[in-house]
Amino acid sequence: MVNIALKIFSTLLIVLMLSGCGQQVILNTGLTENDANDIIAELSRYKIPAEKLIDKTGVTVLVEQDTIERAVQILNTAGLPHKARTNLGEVFQKSGIISSPLEERARYIYALSQEVESTLAQIDGVIVARVNVVLPERVAPGEPIQPASASVFIKYQPDLDPDSIEPQIRRLVSTSIPGLAGKESSALSVVFVPVGIYQDHIDMVNLGPFQLTMNQYGTVKMVFLTLLVTLILAASGLVAKSKIQRRLAAKKGQ
């Protein structure tokens, strides 16, 4: 009877431990290899395990279901995954369709903004870079040409110093946009916004000298309850077996 109870306990314990590992769910899909690696590295800073799967559509990142909310908040704060950008070559691929001059100009401005954004995003500490470009244009015949201008939005991490990096950003943007080099500083506006700091909070439970997460505590509690029930069943079996043996011994003695 004791052996049977122990087998039942062992089986239940294995099931509980496996269920405690958590079911994996999709966090992001269709990622590049670099974005997937950046996401996994960022989550590992907060002790969140993640796995990646590679298929024809790209890389998929999986996390445990009970960590999905924290993972999403962490990635939003870190600006991950990175925004997919289009380069000049992709925008002006030959499609066989003749575009109007206005369409060509709009596509060129869009592609130019994307190229500058992509370059700014390579700066250490820059999480998000957005660039809006206005190229020189004559609004109406006889009117003066509207000068080139640009606005830059930078969301940055705490380790980046805006005062030290702003001159470099201004120089990079002004030399990348036609008609902007050598213009007065008012033609180029740069706005820096610090990223919101994610305050990671995990509800912990003290169990003797140990600190457990709520998920771990639930698993441990179920294990102990299972052990208690198993011991009660084993003890009941032993008592019943002892009574039966005494009755049999009494009958033999008569």
From TrEMBL:
Presence of keyword Cell membrane: no
GO terms classed as biological process: protein secretion
Keywords from the named record: Cell outer membrane, Lipoprotein, Membrane, Palmitate, Signal, Transmembrane, Transmembrane helix
TM spans (from-to): 222-240
Membrane topology: Lipid-anchor
InterPro entries named among the record's database cross-references: AMP-bd_C_sf (IPR045851), FliF_N_dom (IPR006182), T3SS_SctJ (IPR003282), YscJ/FliF (IPR043427)
Protein name (record): Lipoprotein
Organism: [Pantoea] beijingensis
